[in-house]
Amino acid sequence: MASHSTLLALLMSSFLFHTVVADASDDYCNFPAVFNFGDSNSDTGGLSAAFGPAPPPNGESFFGKPAGRYCDGRLIIDFIANSLGLPYLSAYLNSVGTNFSHGANFATAGSTIRAQNTTLRQSGFSPFSLDVQSWEFAQFKSRSESFVKQGLFKDQLPKEEYFSQALYTFDIGQNDLTAAYFSNMTTKEVKAVIPNILDKFTIVIQSVYWQGGRYFWIHNTGPFGCLPYVLDRLTLRAPDVDRAGCGSPFNEVAQLFNQKLKEVVDQLKKDLPLAVFTYVDIYSLKYELLSHASLHGFDSNALLTCCGHGGKYNYNANFGCGSMRMVNNTEVLVGKSCNNPFRRIIWDGVHFTQAANKWIFDHIVGGKFSYPPTPLKMACKKN
Ligand SMILES: *[C@@H]1O[C@H](CO)[C@@H](O)[C@H](O)[C@H]1NC(C)=O
Ligand SMILES: *[C@@H]1O[C@H](CO)[C@@H](O)[C@H](O)[C@H]1NC(C)=O
Ligand SMILES: *[C@@H]1O[C@H](CO)[C@@H](O)[C@H](O)[C@H]1NC(C)=O
Ligand SMILES: *[C@@H]1O[C@H](CO)[C@@H](O)[C@H](O)[C@H]1NC(C)=O
């Protein structure tokens, strides 16, 4: 992680950098499609399609209604698609009203890299782990190619060449680490499973590569030790809270995961010579935002949940955002309790608000938080 002063310098120059590169439009990659793999941080409707919709007030700030996202509005992946001139990604699992002309989204909320040995009902983790998402992708690719060859569904499926020209985005891993903690592993034990988690990650990247994928944009994992659902559930196990109020052991694990992920990406660069990899440091941005919220125009009580109920963080696992709770024999919606979600960072105790997602996107798009420092639109170029 960059030191704070370095980080601030990067933050201040990242907008400027974006403007400067804008002149070199001939060099842009023109990605015709995005294929995304991940968890709730980038789910645009996958879990909703299979297990019931994300309830209101999700979606309220932008879509005006629930839109399959666990957020008041758009996610980082939405800002990515939009800035590449592409439509928002349809969830692969959605069977109605979808359009995959410019990509597909295999992410579902609660997804892990490693398949879990518990059901969604038992543990809250999605059955669509990363290996499943990669099988879905293989099906999607081979079946759409076969339809397009027959001249069928051309206006809702990608062109054949898009699979090698697309940007493949990944944002997954956080739930592997929280799942391990929630199964009562010690920090030492969680650290010990990281290599196994990343081995499974590598297998999926290789599989996409052998199917023709070339451009990989990989987000590292965020400081989940700052999230109310982790702090609330593991509170007795986190005596070490840092100045930002985040659980230090959890964030230490996230950082170890990221360090190893970066090594894995460096190795993949060597093993898969035709691919271009961009590793994006989401962790530093999220931590910077949460630890200096007012400096960046957000309310100072950074860890407080906007849509929730009760407790230190306005978060209670039994009364989640959009659930109903009984008050004097009447059902009441657990809705937005903050006046202005545009000034809040934490949406529902687990996920970031649209405003926070936009802030993060604005800082990664220019490349200052990427290794190598590649702007989004140049992520097809080898350094
Ligand atoms: C699930 O169980 C198998 C067999 O015991 C084990 O190899 C695997 O690591 C387990 N997965 C997780 C995520 O704990
Ligand atoms: C899907 O989107 C593409 C590009 O935005 C558009 O050309 C096409 O007509 C759409 N297909 C359907 C079935 O709406
Ligand atoms: C973890 O420990 C708590 C407290 O002892 C217990 O209630 C819970 O069932 C345990 N969870 C698992 C998955 O073993
Ligand atoms: C519930 O009812 C009690 C007694 O009538 C009343 O004092 C209280 O304000 C009510 N609570 C809410 C949230 O309406």
UniProtKB/TrEMBL annotation:
Residues passing through the membrane, by range: none
Q: Which UniProt keywords apply?
A: Glycoprotein, Hydrolase, Signal
One annotated GO molecular function is: hydrolase activity, acting on ester bonds
Q: Where is the signal peptide?
A: 1-22
InterPro entries with a match to the protein in the record: GDSL, SGNH_hydro_sf, SGNH_plant_lipase-like
So what family is this one in? Belongs to the 'GDSL' lipolytic enzyme family.
Name of the protein in its database record: GDSL esterase/lipase
- Tell me which species this is from: Canna indica
